[in-house]
Amino acid sequence: MVAALTALNRACSRLLRSPNTALFASARAQQPSARIRQNAITAPSRFPAAVAQRQSAHATPRRLFSQTRRRPYQNYHNNNNPHDPHERLRNAKPLFTDGGLRGFIRSPSTHTVAALAFLGAVGFYFYNLQTVPVSGRKRFNCFTEESVEAVSEQQVKRIEWEVERQGGRFLSDWDPRTRMVKRVMRRLIPVSGMEDSDWEVRVIDDPRQANAFVLPGGKVFVYSGIIPIARNEDGLAAVLGHEIAHNLAQHIGERMSGQIGINILLGSFVLLTALWGGAILGTQLFGGTVLDLLFSRPMGRKQETEADYIGLLMMAEACYDPEQALGFWQRMEHMEHQQEAPPEWMSTHPSNHNRIEKIKKWLPEAMDKRAQSDCSGTAAFADRFRRALAQGLIIPVQ
Ligand SMILES: [Zn+2]
């Protein structure tokens, strides 16, 4: 058996070494050319130029799967064809060089421009400083009411889309809850001094959400879940009066300004703001900002206090009972402490422990205001507030 295997192995070896075997055909075919090449390199020649040409032609390694001769390598890299985009890219000069950048930074004209931009930014900041009449608070607000309204008007469609995406629906105009909200707004709009706005009331059918907001420009959104907490039209007037007060005090514009305040101080956006104002910044930078400010970020404590006071006096001027505002806030605070998830409205209108105490303190003034009002919807307080804001005056709070 072993002898038979040994014999078979020898036969196979002979077959593999045989010149007639196909496996060695290609290797054998290359052998003569290899010999010629070796002779050409080693043997002296009478034609050295021809030898050099042959040497360079054979210097590149033979390609395994192609029998065509490779084009000279230099053709790819020494192409001076100006129409070749790759060639133009290879020869392109860098836009910024270290030396050029250093020169730009050290240039006296750069320093002058930077200093002017900084001074302009500081001037712009102080020019747009305002005093909030009811609190005497100083704030930076570079947005006019019109520019904030223009930005927020673009958001209405987005809100409607969001509501429908979350499975919500808007109540019809004939629903008792919609009619209730509209009745309250009909009395609050005249005292707000914003009768010229394009007012629109939408009530969202969602009993789980206790929320309401008024977009600058007059778009009112109320979630049906807040109506039971408000209990009656006076309570609803407290909610909507507070929301309108945020608009009257231009709190959204103030918060939008606060977002770019640091950049403006650094001089980055001063030219943009001066040249194009709310038009470009409003649409490009603040497209979603109004909604973010309304839905996800809580108002500041001082802004809340201002809105509480302004809202209370406006609802009193519209002949609603200011004491109902106290009851509404007490119910809200009670819910906030009782429930795991406090009402949505509380997340954007955070309570502070002395809110109710302050409203109690303001109640006599609000009751006087109500007694003096002829309930015909005069905007005495709102007009006084606007004049004071424009003139930098303070309205004394009792
Ligand atoms: Zn608020």
Plain-language structure description:
- By secondary structure, the protein is mainly alpha-helical.
- Helices cover 62% and strands 6% of the residues.
- It is built from 20 helices and 5 strands.
- It has helices at residues 2-17, 25-42, 48-59, 74-77, 85-91, 98-106, 108-127, 145-153, 156-165, 176-192, 227-230, 233-248, 251-265, 270-285, 289-295, 301-317, 323-338, 344-348, 355-372, 380-391; strands at residues 129-132, 137-140, 200-204, 212-215, 219-223.
- Helix 10 (176-192) crosses helix 12 (233-248).
- The longest helix is centred in the N-terminal third of the chain and has 20 residues, at 108-127.
- Residues 242, 246, 299, 304, 307, 349 line the site of zinc ion (ZN).
- It comes from Apiospora hydei.
- Belongs to the peptidase M48 family.
- The chain crosses the membrane at residues 264-295.
- Its cofactor is Zn(2+).
Question: Alpha-carbon distance between the termini?
Answer: 121 Å
Radius of gyration: 41 Å
**Largest sheet, if any?**
3 strands, mixed
Estimated share of beta-strand residues: 5-15%
Name every ligand kind in the structure.
Answer: zinc ion
Widest sheet: strand ordering: 3-5-4
Helix fraction by DSSP (H/I, runs of at least 4): 55-70%
Structural class: mainly alpha
Indicate the low-confidence ranges by residue numbers.
Answer: 18-45
Number of helices: 20
What is the H-and-E element order? HHHHHHHEEHHHEEEHHHHHHHHHH
What is the 3D shape? extended
Q: Total number of β-strand segments?
A: 5
Mean pLDDT: 77
Pfam families: Peptidase_M48 (PF01435)
Protein name: Mitochondrial metalloendopeptidase OMA1
Keywords: Hydrolase, Membrane, Metal-binding, Metalloprotease, Protease, Transmembrane, Transmembrane helix, Zinc
Family: Belongs to the peptidase M48 family.
